[in-house]
Structures are given as structure tokens and as C-alpha cells.
Specification:
The complex is a heterodimer of chains A (112) and B (115).
Chain A: E1 4-7, E2 10-13, E3 19-25, E4 31-38, E5 42-51, E6 54-57, E7 64-66, E8 76-78, E9 87-94, E10 102-103, E11 107-111
Parallel strand pairs in A: 2-11
Antiparallel strand pairs in A: 1-3, 3-8, 4-5, 4-9, 5-6, 7-8, 9-10, 9-11
Chain B: E1 3-5, E2 10-14, E3 19-21, E4 24-26, E5 31-38, E6 44-50, E7 56-58, E8 64-68, E9 73-78, E10 87-95, E11 104-105, E12 109-114
Parallel strand pairs in B: 2-12
Antiparallel strand pairs in B: 1-4, 3-9, 5-6, 5-10, 7-8, 8-9, 10-11, 10-12
Classes of the chains: A mainly beta (112), B mainly beta (115).
Chain lengths: 112, 115
Amino acid sequence: DGGITQSPKYLFRKEGQNVTLSCEQNLNHDAMYWYRQDPGQGLRLIYYSQIVNDFQKGDIAEGYSVSREKKESFPLTVTSAQKNPTAFYLCASSTGSTETQYFGPGTRLLVL
Amino acid sequence: AQSVTQPDIHITVSEGASLELRCNYSYGATPYLFWYVQSPGQGLQLLLKYFSGDTLVQGIKGFEAEFKRSQSSFNLRKPSVHWSDAAEYFCAVVPSGGGADGLTFGKGTHLIIQP
């Protein structure tokens, strides 16, 4: 089955800890995106990548980092600098910036 | 900068009644337009999209949307809602000429279905 997988489904972070959210796609898409979703805020873009080994900051990149070493993978690290990380994180991919984005099932991050 | 407005944060509709969710965009040229649906705790699923051509677009699950250039609107409709339609609905746009960061989303409309 083609699609986007995100893991884990739930993630708990302790104070001062970095955590990494996984996003993998087997759709052969060039572009990948990370969004943060908070109640009443809609989706806010954290980082995006149009091709391998290249990525750009979105609207709320502070406290986050990404890598794009492989076409299929776009992991997101929530660093200790992100003071309010509790949210639902969604990964998406598309064939290009004007094309339909397909979403993974999401990861809910909670702070202990 | 482009923006998307979904004026209704919550909408309550009786099961079997018709539905219209509003979406307005602000952009200099006609963008590409999308509607997504999100069930609680899930990712987003594409309902329909408009790129060009017929301004009335049919989607999955019995939904349709009409693009009105003069009103900068792309409203989503369904003639008869089912309890399973209760979800969050997002309108999104992207410039037809391309935007490196992809889609701009509205803040969503939460649809509640009354029995």
C-alpha cells in the first residue's frame, strides 16, 4: 500500500529533552512538509522540503529541526528550545508545491 | 500575502439536512483550491480540488464545491449530511503559478451533526 506513515502515534517528552518524530512515504513524492496543529489554530507550517538535501523554514520553525537525507524520509526533531511543544504534528507529501498534499495519521506530543 | 478565511468556527446541522461550509481566499490571481476533512485524532483526507475548468467540482463522500471568482469563494456543500460527516473541515489554496511552501490552510470549521 502506498502512503505516509508517522511514528510514534503518541510521544512523551521530558523537560530539556529532544525528541524525534518519524515521517516516511512510499509515494515517490519530491516534496514533504511538517505542520503543527493546535485547537482553533488550523495547520501551521514548521518546515518543508522540495528535494532531497534541501529544506526551508516555515512559519513557526523556532525550536524545531529537520533533515532530508533520503527522498522517503523527513524526520522532525523537537528540541528543548521549543517551550510549548504539546500539539498534534502532521507530516504531508506531494509531487510538487502546487499539487495535492497527502497526509500521514499524525503524532501527538505530550510533555511530562 | 495570500490568506484563507473560514468564517464559521463551528456549524451544527441536523442529520439529513443540507450543508454549506464557507471559504474565502485573498490572492491576486486565481489559485488552486482544496477541501480536506479531518476526523478526531486523524490526518487530513482530500475531499476535492479545483484547478481549472468547470467551476462546480464533485468530490468523495457526496461533497461538492463551487468556485466563484467574483466572490473569491470556494464553498463546500452536501445535500444531505450523515452522522459520519461530523469532523473538522479545512479549505486550502496555493498559487497556480506555484508557491514553494505549498498550501495555505484556513483555520477550519468544526461540523457537529444533531440526530
